[in-house]
Write a structure and sequence with these properties.
Blueprint: H1 9-12, E1 15-21, H2 28-41, E2 47-51, H3 59-62, H4 71-76, H5 83-89, E3 91-92, E4 97-100, H6 114-127, E5 130-134, H7 140-143, E6 151-156, H8 161-170
Parallel strand pairs: 1-5, 1-6, 2-4, 2-5
Antiparallel strand pairs: 3-4
Length: 171
Amino acid sequence: DRAGGQETQEVKNGQVLCFTGTRGGIGTTTVAVNVAWLIAHEHGKRVALVDLDLFFGTCGLSLDLDLGRGFREALENPARIDGLFIERAMVKSGDNLFVLCAEEALECAIHFDAAAVQLLIEHLRRDFQYVVVDLPRFALRTQASILTPPSVVNVISDPSLGGMRDTMRLL
């Protein structure tokens, strides 16, 4: 309770935890999925797990989920993003963990504005205590807007020279 009985917007909205890797195959998705699962199942918090790799993302696969429909449509038509649309696009994994992921065909061209992801994250922050985002490093340039406060960015690296160099580049 702050400011004479009124909570601030940051207290009401969920925390964004973003995970990105410096290289492929170092376990970034594994860390993101496990953090989301632990927060949801061990701490009993409502968690949205968002896999922003629409072609090769493995968050849903890691949790043995059937992929939901509508994630791509939400990004391509941000005017349709609302609580009901998001609820229908998400796949439930237990009482508190909800996953937003896709496995689009490789020949499929996806065109969406970075503002669509920002809008989606803002809607999720209103409905969930935590929003865990698996952000592929190739999307960092276009999706940097979701990394603004109150986000926590976790950069996953391996102990190689290339990993150290890429960590410094990402920072």
